[in-house]
Amino acid sequence: MAHGDSGCHHCSAALPEGGVIDHLVPISRGGLSTVANMRVVCVTCNASKKDKLLDEWSPLVLLVT
Fold first, then answer.
1. Cβ atoms 44, 13 nearer than 8 A
2. Comparing C-alpha atoms, which of 46, 3, 47, 41 is closest to residue 19?
3. What are the extents of the domains in the chain?
4. Residue 23: phi, psi to the nearest 5?
5. What is the tens place of the pLDDT at every residue in 35-49?
Protein backbone atom coordinates (compact mmCIF):
# COMPACT_ATOMS: atom_id res chain seq x y z
CA MET A 1 0.00 0.00 0.00
CA ALA A 2 1.37 3.44 -0.95
CA HIS A 3 1.38 6.36 1.44
CA GLY A 4 -2.03 8.05 1.45
CA ASP A 5 -3.99 5.02 0.20
CA SER A 6 -5.98 5.00 3.43
CA GLY A 7 -7.06 8.63 3.08
CA CYS A 8 -6.15 11.94 4.68
CA HIS A 9 -4.41 11.50 8.03
CA HIS A 10 -6.49 14.33 9.51
CA CYS A 11 -10.01 13.93 8.05
CA SER A 12 -9.92 10.51 6.31
CA ALA A 13 -11.00 12.03 2.97
CA ALA A 14 -10.07 10.03 -0.12
CA LEU A 15 -6.83 11.10 -1.78
CA PRO A 16 -7.44 10.48 -5.49
CA GLU A 17 -4.34 12.48 -6.46
CA GLY A 18 -2.11 11.09 -3.70
CA GLY A 19 -2.46 14.01 -1.26
CA VAL A 20 0.25 16.34 -0.01
CA ILE A 21 2.77 16.15 2.82
CA ASP A 22 1.90 17.95 6.05
CA HIS A 23 4.41 18.54 8.83
CA LEU A 24 2.69 17.80 12.16
CA VAL A 25 5.02 20.36 13.75
CA PRO A 26 5.53 22.94 10.99
CA ILE A 27 9.05 23.79 9.87
CA SER A 28 8.34 27.41 10.86
CA ARG A 29 7.67 26.19 14.42
CA GLY A 30 10.82 24.09 14.70
CA GLY A 31 9.57 20.87 13.09
CA LEU A 32 11.86 18.69 11.02
CA SER A 33 11.33 16.92 7.71
CA THR A 34 11.44 13.47 9.26
CA VAL A 35 9.11 10.54 8.67
CA ALA A 36 7.88 10.87 12.27
CA ASN A 37 6.83 14.49 11.66
CA MET A 38 5.19 14.13 8.23
CA ARG A 39 1.82 12.75 7.16
CA VAL A 40 -0.06 12.50 3.86
CA VAL A 41 -3.12 14.76 3.98
CA CYS A 42 -5.69 16.27 1.64
CA VAL A 43 -5.14 19.71 0.13
CA THR A 44 -8.05 21.15 2.15
CA CYS A 45 -6.60 20.10 5.52
CA ASN A 46 -3.11 21.21 4.54
CA ALA A 47 -4.38 24.65 3.48
CA SER A 48 -6.51 25.17 6.59
CA LYS A 49 -3.88 23.92 9.07
CA LYS A 50 -1.17 26.24 7.71
CA ASP A 51 1.49 26.61 10.43
CA LYS A 52 -0.66 25.54 13.37
CA LEU A 53 0.16 22.75 15.79
CA LEU A 54 -2.38 19.92 16.04
CA ASP A 55 -3.74 21.16 19.38
CA GLU A 56 -4.39 24.59 17.80
CA TRP A 57 -6.36 23.25 14.82
CA SER A 58 -9.03 20.74 13.88
CA PRO A 59 -10.05 19.45 10.44
CA LEU A 60 -12.94 21.09 8.65
CA VAL A 61 -16.07 18.96 8.83
CA LEU A 62 -18.39 19.18 5.85
CA LEU A 63 -21.96 18.22 6.55
CA VAL A 64 -23.86 16.88 3.57
CA THR A 65 -27.62 16.81 3.92
1. yes
2. 41
3. 1-55+61-65
4. -90, 120
5. 999 999 999 999 999
